[in-house]
Design brief:
14 helices, homotetramer, five-stranded antiparallel beta sheet, elongated, arginine biosynthesis (chains A, B, C, D)
Chain lengths: 406, 406, 406, 406
Amino acid sequence: MSDVKKVVLAYSGGLDTSVIVKWLQETYNCEVVTFTADIGQGEEVEPARAKAQALGVKEIYIEDLREEFVRDYVFPMFRANTIYEGEYLLGTSIARPLIAKRLIEIANETGADAISHGATGKGNDQVRFELGGYALKPGVKVIAPWREWDLTSREKLMAYCEEHNIPVDFSNKKKKSPYSMDANLLHISYEGGILEDPWAEAEDDMWRWSVSPEAAPDTPTYVELTFEKGDIVAIDGEALKAHEVLEKLNKVGGDNGIGRLDIVENRYVGMKSRGCYETPGGTIMLRAHRAIESLTLDREEAHLKDQLMPKYAEVIYNGYWWSPERRMLQAAIDETQKNVSGVVRMKLYKGNATVVGRKSEQSLFDESIATFEDDAGAYNQKDAEGFIKLNALRLRIAAGKGRQQS
Amino acid sequence: MSDVKKVVLAYSGGLDTSVIVKWLQETYNCEVVTFTADIGQGEEVEPARAKAQALGVKEIYIEDLREEFVRDYVFPMFRANTIYEGEYLLGTSIARPLIAKRLIEIANETGADAISHGATGKGNDQVRFELGGYALKPGVKVIAPWREWDLTSREKLMAYCEEHNIPVDFSNKKKKSPYSMDANLLHISYEGGILEDPWAEAEDDMWRWSVSPEAAPDTPTYVELTFEKGDIVAIDGEALKAHEVLEKLNKVGGDNGIGRLDIVENRYVGMKSRGCYETPGGTIMLRAHRAIESLTLDREEAHLKDQLMPKYAEVIYNGYWWSPERRMLQAAIDETQKNVSGVVRMKLYKGNATVVGRKSEQSLFDESIATFEDDAGAYNQKDAEGFIKLNALRLRIAAGKGRQQS
Amino acid sequence: MSDVKKVVLAYSGGLDTSVIVKWLQETYNCEVVTFTADIGQGEEVEPARAKAQALGVKEIYIEDLREEFVRDYVFPMFRANTIYEGEYLLGTSIARPLIAKRLIEIANETGADAISHGATGKGNDQVRFELGGYALKPGVKVIAPWREWDLTSREKLMAYCEEHNIPVDFSNKKKKSPYSMDANLLHISYEGGILEDPWAEAEDDMWRWSVSPEAAPDTPTYVELTFEKGDIVAIDGEALKAHEVLEKLNKVGGDNGIGRLDIVENRYVGMKSRGCYETPGGTIMLRAHRAIESLTLDREEAHLKDQLMPKYAEVIYNGYWWSPERRMLQAAIDETQKNVSGVVRMKLYKGNATVVGRKSEQSLFDESIATFEDDAGAYNQKDAEGFIKLNALRLRIAAGKGRQQS
Amino acid sequence: MSDVKKVVLAYSGGLDTSVIVKWLQETYNCEVVTFTADIGQGEEVEPARAKAQALGVKEIYIEDLREEFVRDYVFPMFRANTIYEGEYLLGTSIARPLIAKRLIEIANETGADAISHGATGKGNDQVRFELGGYALKPGVKVIAPWREWDLTSREKLMAYCEEHNIPVDFSNKKKKSPYSMDANLLHISYEGGILEDPWAEAEDDMWRWSVSPEAAPDTPTYVELTFEKGDIVAIDGEALKAHEVLEKLNKVGGDNGIGRLDIVENRYVGMKSRGCYETPGGTIMLRAHRAIESLTLDREEAHLKDQLMPKYAEVIYNGYWWSPERRMLQAAIDETQKNVSGVVRMKLYKGNATVVGRKSEQSLFDESIATFEDDAGAYNQKDAEGFIKLNALRLRIAAGKGRQQS
């Protein structure tokens, strides 16, 4: 374990990663560089500086990555209407590639030969961090303390803190929650505690980002979302940066009780787990994006996107953002978004995010053809006969030969 | 046009299909057999008998197909979590194959050589009726009056009625609505009128099956849905037939403002159209089915189902229920449903159908492995290192050779 | 039929299209522009000029499109290892989009409002020409004489020629063959005649571009093909243009009895047909391209390409080259070809095109890892245990719960 | 290591697995049960008995599994026209599930708590054996000596033999070959040696099952293969068992130089490797199966099969035969094979396996429709206009709105 000289740690400033700083210093006898990022988790990142200093860290990186996160990761993912297993909007998954990338870049800047993280050996996040790390710096050493050490209970962690003089007030906040949580601009997640019984309903005071539908206002809120090439660029006519879009939608969505989700999902490491998520802005974005696509995408590209999406979601969920297959899928997806521009009007009300209107200069909706009224010859109904006849030909031939018909 | 001797008509009893009866008799100088089915559209079917008799029809079929419809068409489709273009639950599409099948069976019983329907030349329904017809009786003659006649406006239809002594009160009810509507146990649909402008919000008095979320009760309703091999067999512990399940869920869903949908969709004939749908029961079923699958399906079969679903939805939407590709996909889907049994608990509240619990004797959720607490060795976290290392190997090799990394 | 003023005809110079010139002039009372292209069919195109002039055509386009055809259509298609229904290399399909594009461009240049072609109403080519035409000029009028006229037998055509003074020697050459043939740089095809019985073996004198394996040389020929970004750019070290590559491979392939194919295929219009094809160069290219990809593509992008290929082939076969779905798929495919560079060595011998070596500076083959000998720690075999354990986890959990195991 | 009481070993009788017997006995101090199967590898299995006895083994299983192997594994796989990465017929992959199943069954019969195999830690076979083992007996202990021991060179193995009195003549035969080989009724494979350089051509004396095309007879051999529901049941009219079919086709194929393959493939463990394969019978079967399907399958089910095949191949290659996703795909595949019956005539000549005729009572080829001659109205060419017009509609609308056209 002596061959690690310097390690860059994804440092939250919380108890667990503070213990890791110390443990890395002791176990590997190496220098630790901390990296703390604001990706919209809703907690100050600056306090991490003093904590790291107190632990003897000399190189401390604290960064605001909110815009990069939303613009380069969240938005590209939403262009595909990405959902994992029919429900999950991938809020945790999509933040990991950016963290992995910065860990490696900082390793390169500081001459570190290793990276480390605080994810457990049971979850998906270790995979996402490490696949990203290996893809971007193939010779990097990865240290995953939770897979190595014997601090396998809260008691042992506390004992370690006491022994090593790590101030435990670090952990106060977290201790109040019985849940394992993760947050960024796209979502906040909850696991563990009573959620480990999939039959048990989540307690209402667990949720942090949204009011319950019951507690939401009795009158609806309407928003108009302007898309350009598949991304939202303005809300109610006001131009916004990517992360501002999401912040604003999180606010208005959360206020209206939108975006709560309670699911059992399949982890890449092979087990099922139960998680609850709040994704207020993402829930609105997904619906709105589908709506603007419904006007502006060709049918066949839309269907092909739908067929590719589950694979794309799996790639991201499993941690392969930095992979050739993700780039390949992204190329296909982005190719379709050139004309995905226009405005979607949504009604937000007590948990419901409902599309009530959409318009676009790129619209392929042709009222003169679709109309039930006289279309002045725009569409020749007689064409339908030949269309049906030839589409039926293979079925008729088969039936004529006595093939199974029902 | 003299070569048709007898034609079986899908007869609703309404104005349009009454005109068609007369028009067929006159134009083709043939006998007309009427077929009217109760598939849960919410209107009496028995009155169609007197109307048909008044038009001189001798062979009149009036049938209650509700159970067959839900059991053999709706339920199999829901096993795949089927959604068209991310939103549409295929309420109209799934009723057509059954109608087509009965038209052909009645043609065989009555010695008819043709079938007819009242669908327009612009829509999907003509395709669905006719593909079904041809697949089940390859030599059948199909008559689609809307593609043939010149009664292209309401005025001309009325004039035809007067001229041929068809009582126009037939049409009273429909005339009240500016929308083209279609209903069965799975849904009611609305097209036309102001909906032809996709920016215009649907008027609240258009909706017929559900109250608005605003008008729904202020307290939630909980239901427990029991699944067996992928289908719901009981609600709140009460065993029900398939169509009773859907009736009951429509009622409780509609009462709670659930299942309204407003979309622009791509028709098989090549145009976009805007439609509004109410699918209260189906909306609940879909969510619940995903929830019971989340406990009982293996990850890889679940993902494969998700990848196949858009194709399966397209097959049904386009009218290919009676096709080898649908049977092939169904075989794959049904193979996965053997263990999809258990109970899902849902909370219905002002438009929201939320899963709050799920349990199953077939559950693959293993709390002893998933737990954040001590798992007593059920899962060896060290396995994750090798898992990640080998999954990363191809990425590391590529990066080591200088391949693009971001 | 009086509303067509000028029509651009895909004119081969043969009997059928010569009749079409006259028939268009007479039937539509319009001006005819002829367009004749050399796409490597192996017949002189210049003679078409005099024939067109003799028919009174004033605007005559004769063009050498061989390079454009191979570079912009054949090569992009081969990047996907495209095969239709497991066997067919799409030789006819891939030539149609280019013809359609030039027809429309010439229509735009000459102010023509219609295009016309000599394809029958039973085949795929009409679809390919017309879909291309409509996609590139939505208001164009398409005239498909074979679907309109009553010249439905050779006798009637001959009578028409005599009546209209069209020199029948035009047809001498074709008359010698009992087959319907089509040729371009990628292939020559045969349909009809005794091939209409799928049990009947093709006669040996039908084949025109290749010797039989029996007649091929008794010693093998070796070629080295240099790829750059997925396309062949040199043969045996000699840099060549795209169409020269294909010409050369056709020659050496045909000389060695390579590329004959005899299949029953499914046409887009709904029927099965039997066709024989000679694709000497294409057969070599496909194998070689797979070989260079086997060294240079990442596994997952390679597998994804394989999964998308059948759809891509279907899109091209059905005539949707000029469609958003083709562009979307092409974007994905081209994204993967950036590193598909290197050299493939092939042995050609009596019908066999065998890869015997491949090398690349972009190779991802890592001998130090793959070796059966001592790898000096490049690969840690112990990683495999964790890899297998976690991949097995879902299966073990299911088996532990008594799930079906075989 | 003391917790293993009895282990079932996949025992070939060769040097490596003989060493493993001794090593297991020593290292785990446990009883070893040997299992040796004839799956058509072309070597006597009975001699393994004496060798095992000499090593002190008391429970010795020697079985002829050839029929089960071909009937229940090879044939189902060929129904899907399964090819991995465009080239490989999965000869090794498909034999592993059967071995794994018998290992587990024997473990259950003999009360063993572990299984063991002689596959290395770098290859796919370890994965296939172990995934199968875990899927069929979730609590089984798997011992993979090559991942555990330090006998990492031939010299160390020899020293171990000497030390433990294991007769080295066991290894004589294998020592003659510089290649790592594996064989069963479907194929024989070669890896290692000079093949580790992908540019080097395989030496001609490496190949064991087939003559070179050059050495094959100068006159072709014709065979007629009778299919029933997707499987070959007779050759030249003679009814045969599944394994007899493959034996016979291997003979006639090998005699005609058919089935040699030289590829670089992507292993599941993340590296590329170069392998050479001889699959004479399989190569013929694949072609023939496609041919009988070309007559008897509907177009859309055929295309869907082609789209699913790469996934199905990956599932088998990666070792997931005993998985829900394989069963799901198999259900879809088998559903399509009900009518895949008939006769295919093939010409075998110097490496070429060419389809020259196919016939079937289930044929969907309709000569009366497909004919270039007068079809007596079986097909109405005018239908094609409407077919094309409506298929073009979406493209025309898009072009009319100024969308990108090329």
